[in-house]
Structures are given as C-alpha cells and as structure tokens.
C-alpha cells in the first residue's frame, strides 16, 4: 500500500506540472525572455570601452562591429518590447504576470 501511495503522489505531481504547462501563457514567458536579452545587451554596451575596442585590429576583432550592431537595433527592440508589454497588459513584475489567470478561466463557469 505505501508503494501505491508513492506512485499516486508521483503521478499527481506529474499531472500538476502538465496542468501548469497548459495554463501557462508562452507569450508572457517570451516577453520576459526578450526583456532579459535586452538587459544583457545593455550590460554589454555599458562595459564597452570605445578607446580600447577601437584600437584593436578591426579585421581580426569584430567586437566593435557586433556592439554597434546591438546599438543600432536596440531602439527598435525597445519599442517592440514596450508595445508587447502594453498589448499583453503586463506590469513588469514577472512573478505576478506569470500568475495571471488565463482569459479562458475568467469566462469559464463552474459547473458543480
């Protein structure tokens, strides 16, 4: 009997995980993944030392080119991220936003 109880508990945990995946909203996770990427890019730009980086051999080291590519694309990424945040009605608090009740649950009626 204890083994059966253990098996049932494990199955229950697996089903809870699956239910969480079904109820999760991938667009919210995607927003925060993109936000994380933007933060990392910003950190890279903040660490960029123009005097040191521009003095290197440009043909051998493409750090300057890659960094400038980030700088050029960043305003568009920020605008798109802000538009997505507004569209998804996110607060900026990842834990809170991921706990939002999916729309389908807000309109579903309890049939008990």
Structural write-up:
This protein has 112 residues and is mainly α. Helix content is 75%, strand content 0%. The protein is built from 6 helices and no strands. The chain has helices spanning 2-23, 26-47, 50-54, 63-87, 94-98, 103-107. Helix 2 (26-47) packs antiparallel against helix 4 (63-87). The longest helix has 25 residues, at 63-87.
List the helices and strands and how they pair.
Elements: H1 2-23, H2 26-47, H3 50-54, H4 63-87, H5 94-98, H6 103-107
List keywords for this structure.
75% helix; single chain; mainly alpha; 112 residues
* Number of helices, counting only DSSP H or I runs of 4 residues or more: 6
Structural class: mainly alpha
Low-confidence stretches: none
The helical percent reads over 70%
Radius of gyration: 23 Å
DSSP strand count: 0
Shape type: elongated
Strand content: under 5%
List the secondary-structure elements in sequence, H or E.
HHHHHH
Average pLDDT, rounded to a whole number, is 83
Distance between the termini: 32 Å
Summarize the structure.
The protein is mainly α and 112 residues long. It is 75% helix and 0% strand. The chain contains six helices and no strands.
């Amino acid at each position: 009997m204890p083994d059966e109880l253990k098996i049932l508990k494990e199955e229950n945990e697996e089903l809870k995980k699956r239910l969480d995946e079904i109820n999760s909203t991938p667009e919210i996770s995607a927003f925060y993944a993109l936000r994380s990427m933007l933060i990392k890019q910003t950190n890279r730009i903040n660490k960029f030392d123009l005097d040191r980086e521009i003095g290197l051999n440009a043909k051998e080291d493409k750090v300057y080119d890659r960094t400038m590519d980030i700088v050029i694309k960043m305003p568009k990424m920020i605008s798109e991220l802000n538009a997505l945040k507004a569209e998804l009605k996110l607060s900026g608090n990842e834990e809170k936003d991921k706990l939002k009740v999916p729309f389908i649950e807000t309109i579903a009626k309890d049939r008990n």
